[in-house]
Amino acid sequence: MFTDLSEEQLRAHRSAVREPDDFDGFWQGTLAQARAAGSAVRAEPVAAGLSAVDVLDVTFAGFDGQPVRGWLRLPRNAPTPLPTVVQYAGYGGGRGHPLENLLWAAAGFAHFQMDTRGQGSGWSRGDTPDPATAGPEAPGVMTRGIADPRSYYYRRLITDAVRAVDAVRTLPMVDPGRVAVLGQSQGGGLALAAGALATGVRAVVAHVPFLCDIPRGVVVTDARPYREVRDYLAVHRDAEERVLATLAYVDGVNFARRCHLPARYSVALMDEIVPPSTVYAAVNAHAGPTELSVWRYNGHEGGGIDDDAAALRFLREHLAPDSDPGARPGW
């Protein structure tokens, strides 16, 4: 069943999420600190047994210089440097197995699948720990360090997402001027943040993005991960103001307001995990051109392969060579 406002109300929905006065300074300082802490990138070939795709095990310096893993998949024998897709995983997932997620390399892109610190055991494996200790939390990572934006889990993960873009743009097989960010659910929220904060990104794909209009999401769905915040506040009854202040620093609506890049969104009107109004809040706040697919009869899976096909068309358009924006670079 439909889980939120009517379609007419959704199209008109605007978020009331608070924007911290020091939002820009907070993220500028966080990223400057991370970049100063380290910039080494290591890429080692993996014997994946594939005949058309090469896989490299990449380690780069994320938040506070901490090592973060990822898979770099490359179409074998393709002329380099390549247009590149940086992908972020949904909640509970990590970078997965080297043999998974071959679409983007098969389509002719360099494809970097970033691992997700402290996750990667829900539905897809991961290898990157989250070494921070941050006080009481509800099960999951949604409330880890939530009492202060400086200790909050998503400060670290969003920094990783930006540093992943920094890292791949230094690799010789990557065209640093043709990079896009992509994700679904949590990955979509990270893509919006990276699109607003990272240097050198050309386009954003955010399918059924999580972490947008978070205060609304917490009170209009009973599903996790938003439920984790509600569970926390049900125990820490005096913490609402402090928690909402922290969440404003990572809310996708605030990143969308700063993202002038072309973006492709999708929303599912029967989504119980990411309420449709929270997606529309980001779309309606986005500072650049947008396109949106509305899936009336789908839940959190969104458009599935149809979203992938639309994203492939979108990224071929926006990552075409500068010399001929309408060209298709041999894909």
TrEMBL record:
Residues 2-317 form the Acetyl xylan esterase domain. GO terms for biological process: polysaccharide metabolic process. Substrate binds at Y91. GO terms for molecular function: carboxylic ester hydrolase activity. SUPFAM superfamilies: alpha/beta-Hydrolases (SSF53474). Pfam families: AXE1. Residues 118-141 are annotated as: Disordered. InterPro entries: AB_hydrolase_fold, AXE1_dom, CE7. The active site is at S185 (nucleophile), D271 (charge relay system), H300 (charge relay system). Coiled coil: none annotated. PANTHER family: CEPHALOSPORIN-C DEACETYLASE (PTHR40111). This is Cephalosporin-C deacetylase. It comes from Micromonospora krabiensis.
